[in-house]
Amino acid sequence: MAAVEQSHWWYRATRTLLQQILSPMLSAPGGRRLELLDAGGGTGATGAWLADHGDLVALDVEPRALALYGELHPAARRVAGDLSAIGLKDHSVDGALCVTVLYHQAIPSPAAAVAELARVVRPGGFVCLMEPGVRRLNRAHDRVTHTARRFARRDLQDLVTGAGLELVSSTGAYSFLVPPAWLKMHWERGRAGASDLDSNPSGLGGTLSALARLERAALRRVQLPAGLSVIAVGRKPLR
Questions:
Q1: Residue 94 pLDDT more than 70?
Q2: In a domain, 44, yes or no
Q3: What is the pTM of this model?
Q4: DSSP string of 17-76?
Q5: d(CA 29, CA 167)
Q6: 59 beta partners
C-alpha cells in the first residue's frame, strides 16, 4: 500500500471519489477546525487527505502500517487500536472514514465496529464506510487480502442505520469493474493469484482512470445499485 498509494490508479481515483462524496460535510460552523478519524487507515492511502480539512487521527492495529503512515503523512496523529475498541472518548470526532476494513477476517462483527465508529462521532457528525461489493465475487485478491465477507449496498445501509445513524447516501462504485472481475474470478480458479495492487498500476494506460472519472460525474446525479465497491454515509442525529 505504501509503495503504490501515489502511483496506483485505484488509490488516486478512490481519494477523489471520497472527497467528492464527503466535501459537503467537511466544514464546521464558525470556522471551527474539524477533528476527523481515519479508522483502520493502513498507511494512509485512502484517508490521509482528511488532514487537509482538520486535525486527523489515524487508527490502525498494525504497528508497521502506523509507522509508514507517520513517515508518509506526518500531519496525522497516530493511535494504535482496532475497531472493536477505539481508544477515543464518546463524541470526540466530527467524522470517521472507514475504507476496506469491515471485510477483513480480523473483524468478527462489522455491526459492532460501526457501532464503535458511531460512538466516537459527535451529534451531527458523519461515518463513511467503503467496502468490497458483490457478495459472491471471491477472487484471488480476496484470498490474498484475507477477505471474510463482501457487501451488497443494502448491507452497508443496514450497518449504518443499525448503529443509530441517519442514512445520508449509499451507492455502488467501480461498477465498470464488475464484469471483468467476474471473468478474472473464473480464470483464476485453482490458481494461486495475487492482489490487484500487484498488477496494472496505470489502469490499462489510463483507461480505468478515465472510466472512474466518468462514473464520478454520474454519481453527482445518481446512486448506483451495485459495484465492485459499495459506499454508505450516515450522520449522527443531533438529538
A1: yes
A2: yes
A3: 0.92
A4: HHHHHHGGGS--GGGPPEEEEEET-TTSTTTGGGGGSEEEEEEES-HHHHHHHHHH-TTS
A5: 22
A6: 39, 79
